[in-house]
């Protein structure tokens, strides 16, 4: 298994909703990442987990809450989002000196 | 903060033309990756280069890593409409596990 999976593929939510994004990889990678990406722009780093511990939080607003239940799973809990949070949310993983592998992303629309 | 300057930002060409995308920095990198991304999808890894002066070929795509490991180029020969997408370079330095991304090159190949 050499892929990163993400669910759901698309998500539409209101500003008062609570939802979660899920990411899974079974490559044994010990670093997992959340990125936010706007159209035709590079991914912006949000969070990094290393060995299931949060190692980097790039000053992300608290309405985004990451969670790493185990070494294969990464969640991003969403609450009280704003329309400007609409974007493609990408999960990635890597191991050692290898490059990152990205999931297909979740297209989030906040109404 | 390490900067990775990618150019051009936008490229619109006819099928059959050749093109080159550049990624430059004043920093030395241990490795550099090129990704291709289609709208609404995650970036897909095309290649990793690690050795100064390295040249890698992937069908019509040729990737070069500069001798000093500060710059890289992606050359596409006889572009096809299927090459349309966002091309991203990303680089790692030293023992860091956080890649630096270029700003991306949005390529449109017209039939």
Helix content of chain B: under 10%
The level of helicity of chain A is under 10%
| Order of SSEs of chain A | EEEEEEEEEEE
Low-confidence stretches of chain B: none
Largest sheet of chain B: 6 strands, mixed
Rounded Rg of chain A? 13 Å
- One letter per element, helices H and strands E, the order of chain B comes to EEEEEEEEEEE
Summing up helix and strand content along with how strands pair, one would put the structural category of chain B as mainly beta
Question: Can you tag this structure with a few keywords?
Answer:
heterodimer, A: 111 residues, mainly beta, four-stranded antiparallel sheet, 58% strand, globular, B: 111 residues, six-stranded mixed sheet, five-stranded antiparallel sheet, 0% helix
Molecular structure report:
Chain A has 111 residues and is mainly beta. Chain A is 0% helix and 58% strand. Chain A is built from no helices and eleven strands. In chain A, strands 2, 4, 5, 6, 9, 10 and 11 form a seven-stranded mixed sheet that branches. A four-stranded antiparallel sheet of chain A has the order 1-3-8-7, with no helix packed on it. In chain A, a hairpin with a 6-residue loop joins strand 4 and strand 5. The relative contact order of chain A is 0.34. The mean pLDDT of chain A is 94. With 111 residues, chain B is mainly beta. In chain B, 0% of the residues lie in helices and 52% in strands. Chain B has no helices and eleven strands. Chain B has strands spanning 5-7, 10-14, 19-24, 31-37, 44-49, 55-58, 61-65, 71-76, 85-92, 100-101, 105-110. In chain B, strand 9 (85-92) and strand 10 (100-101) form a beta hairpin. Chain B is globular, with a radius of gyration of 13 Å. Chain B starts with a strand and ends with a strand. The mean pLDDT of chain B is 94. The interface between A and B is medium-sized, with 26 and 24 residues.
Map the helices and strands.
The complex is a heterodimer of chains A (111) and B (111).
Chain A: E1 4-7, E2 10-13, E3 18-25, E4 31-37, E5 44-50, E6 53-57, E7 64-70, E8 73-79, E9 87-94, E10 101-102, E11 106-110
Parallel strand pairs in A: 2-11
Antiparallel strand pairs in A: 1-3, 3-8, 4-5, 4-9, 5-6, 7-8, 9-10, 9-11
Chain B: E1 5-7, E2 10-14, E3 19-24, E4 31-37, E5 44-49, E6 55-58, E7 61-65, E8 71-76, E9 85-92, E10 100-101, E11 105-110
Parallel strand pairs in B: 2-11
Antiparallel strand pairs in B: 1-3, 3-8, 4-5, 4-9, 6-7, 7-8, 9-10, 9-11
């Amino acid at each position: 298994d050499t892929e990163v999976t993400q669910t759901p593929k698309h998500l539409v939510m209101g500003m008062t909703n609570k939802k979660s994004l899920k990411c899974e990889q079974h490559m044994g990678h010990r670093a997992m990442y959340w990125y936010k990406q706007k159209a035709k722009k590079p991914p912006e780093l949000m969070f990094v987990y290393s060995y299931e511990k949060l190692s980097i939080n790039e000053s992300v607003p608290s309405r985004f809450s990451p969670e790493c239940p185990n070494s294969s799973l990464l969640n991003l809990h969403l609450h009280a989002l704003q329309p400007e949070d609409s974007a493609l949310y990408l999960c990635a993983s890597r191991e050692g000196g290898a490059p990152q592998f990205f999931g297909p992303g979740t297209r989030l629309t906040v109404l | 903060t390490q900067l990775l300057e990618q150019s051009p930002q936008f490229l619109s060409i006819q099928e059959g033309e050749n093109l080159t995308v550049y990624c430059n920095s004043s920093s030395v990198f241990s490795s550099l990756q090129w990704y291709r991304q289609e709208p609404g999808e995650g970036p897909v890894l095309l290649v990793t280069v690690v050795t100064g002066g390295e040249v890698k070929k992937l069908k019509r795509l040729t990737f070069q890593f500069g001798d000093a490991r500060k710059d890289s180029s992606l050359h596409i020969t006889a572009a096809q409409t299927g090459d349309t997408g966002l091309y991203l370079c990303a680089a790692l330095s030293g023992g860091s596990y956080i890649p630096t991304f270029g700003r991306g090159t949005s390529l449109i190949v017209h039939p």
